[in-house]
Amino acid sequence: MSIKIVLADDHSIMREGLRLLIEKHPDLEVVGEADNGRKAVELAHELKPDIVVMDVSMPDLNGMEATRQIVGKVEGVRVVALSMHSGREYVMDMLQAGVSGYILKESCPEELARAIRLVAAGKTCLDPEITGVAIDTAVHPGAGAERPRVEELTSREREVLQLLAEGKTTKQIAGRLFVSTKTIDTHRRQIMKKLNLESLPELTKYAIRAGLTSLEG
Fold first, then answer.
1. Which CA distances in Å does 192 have to 28, 152, 198?
2. How far apart are CA 212 and CA 166, in angstroms?
3. Going by DSSP bridges, is the β-strand pair 28-34/101-104 parallel, antiparallel, or unpaired?
4. Within this chain, do residues 33 and 122 fall inside the same structural domain, yes or no?
5. Which of 17, 62, 135, 148 shows the smallest number of beta carbons within 10 Å?
6. Which of 71, 69, 68, 79 is nearest to 8 (CA)?
7. pLDDT in tens, 111-153
8. Which residues make Cβ contacts (< 8 Å) with residue 215, sequence separation at least 6?
9. pTM of the predicted structure, to 2 decimals
10. Is residue 144 part of a domain?
11. Do both 117 and 202 map to the same domain?
12. Could you tell me if residue 217 is inside a domain?
């Protein structure tokens, strides 16, 4: 029986390349593709894959939030992060969100296939290049204490913050999340109060520093 996989990456060329590389292995099957985190969550619910290969920086809903929602709500689906980011903040935030593997995009294709198989078997797998980051953080847990703590915000507040940082209007966010504009205004006020911020540019800077969105796309 093949391992069923959903690919989540906002670059179509990357997804096509990943599909071709993965499907060279007879035991691996790509059953769906998503160009943002929200679609990845939907496909996880709909298709019940064994593995979601998740990019970290994506529009609409980033890989960290998408991972939290999948791991927390879709039984039996595990997540492997595939990212260009090797920094402590990205690695640790994704691990805390619930990924079972973290592989860098610069790694060889066989490393991703190996990670998928290990995670599908119930194990964890970290790229050799970032294993030291996880170990160092465990030994020196206070090293990243100066970073903004996204845990201060609720899951919905993090979603709203990302969409605000991406330039969406209150009306657009309300439509995207199926709530009223008044609800979004309330979320925005709560976010600013919790983070002690006073303007949209400050919120945007926070979202980038916290890894909720990226200027790199």
1. 45, 11, 6
2. 10
3. unpaired
4. yes
5. 135
6. 79
7. 999 999 999 999 999 888 776 655 555 444 454 445 556 677 8
8. 208
9. 0.75
10. no
11. no
12. no
